[in-house]
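Hi everyone, sorry if this is the wrong subforum. Our group has a chain we'd like a structural model of before ordering constructs, and none of us has done structure prediction before. Sequence below.
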Amino acid sequence: MQQYEDILKELEKKLAPKVLKQYGIICKKLPFGDCSPIYLAKPHWTNRFDDDRKSTLGIFCSVWVDPKYLKRNLYSYNIHAKTLHKLPGYQLKPKLFATEFRSLVNTTVADWPGVSLNYGPSTLLMGRDSCDLDSFAEKVEARIQGYVDIHKHIDELLAQYRSGSQKRVRPSQLYETQINILLYWPVYAVRSSF
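Answer:
Right subforum, don't worry. Here is the predicted structure as tokens:
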């Protein structure tokens, strides 16, 4: 178990400065139960990195090894969305957020090893993969890169639910509006010239 924890710590040291600088994502290894996952999130997504929090809320990604699954030669990864309705600065409905997030990432994550999106709203996705010691670092780095690749969807959805923002517009509505403007603009232009 310790060898895996050491690998996670080395990956944290290697990747944390890069993902923070390029994407504003915190990458930090923190203790939880009998393991210490690597967590990834932006500060406005979660209070996970606040030492003084009473409970964890918000959205965060994690990768970890625990004794139970290590016996089966597996590591785990997930994206949690804990108590979203209480996330400060947002008016979130957890089930709606989970549904919209999953529809945005479904195709992208389909080839992630052992992934499933069939959970309640507090687990947006979860998966497990084999963790042979010689390939573990490479696999975890791929999961972290996968999180980085889909983080923009979390930002986009959160922006739509920001408290005090104007009426929320679904991306499909925006697309329909753009199409209608393109299709009917000549008609408006002709009518307005009379």
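For your construct planning: The longest strand covers residues 74-82. Residues 2-168 form one domain.
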